[in-house]
């Protein structure tokens, strides 16, 4: 996947997250919602299949309600992926 500048997580679609710099390289940012880190779990050359795999891991965690504190209301994986235009795993 060749990335352009984006302000959403490529795994979970969380808005306001900047995984890549202006040149398309990882910022090593950790997404608050899915907890995947750009540059470690994925980078600018990761393929769509890899993102789909990570997304599947995240969706399984969401369904298992892995977080201890109540999640923000907007952390609904179905809505989040749809709003971000990302494929459901
Ligand atoms: Zn994320």
Task: Write a structural description.
This protein has one domain (1-89). The mean pLDDT is 88. The chain is built from 2 helices and no strands. It is globular. The protein has 89 residues and is mostly helical. The longest helix is centred in the middle third of the chain and has 16 residues, at 48-63. It has helices spanning 48-63, 77-84. The structure holds zinc ion. Zinc ion (ZN) is lined by residues 9, 11-12, 14, 31, 33-34, 36.
Write the layout of secondary structure elements.
Blueprint: H1 48-63, H2 77-84
The structure holds zinc ion (ZN).
Count of individual beta strands: 0
Bound molecules: zinc ion
Task: Provide a count of the helices.
Answer: 2
Radius of gyration: 12 Å
Shape, per Cα inertia axes: globular
* Unreliable stretches covering 5 or more consecutive residues: none
Helix content bin: 25-40%
Which structural class matches the secondary elements?
Answer: mainly alpha
Average pLDDT reading: 88
Q: How far is the N terminus from the C terminus?
A: 17 Å
Concise account of the structure shown:
The chain has helices at 48-63, 77-84. The chain is mainly alpha-helical and 89 residues long.
Task: List the main descriptive attributes of the protein structure presented here.
globular, about 90 residues, single chain, binds zinc ion, mainly alpha, about 25% helix
């Amino acid at each position: 996947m060749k990335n352009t500048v984006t302000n959403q997580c490529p795994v979970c679609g969380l808005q306001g997250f900047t995984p890549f710099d202006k040149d398309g390289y990882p910022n090593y940012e950790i997404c608050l919602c899915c907890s995947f880190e750009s540059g470690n779990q994925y980078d600018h050359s990761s393929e769509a299949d890899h993102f789909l795999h990570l997304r599947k891991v995240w969706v399984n965690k969401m369904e298992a309600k892995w977080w201890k504190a109540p999640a923000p209301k907007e952390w609904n994986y179905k809505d989040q992926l749809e709003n971000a235009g990302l494929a459901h795993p």
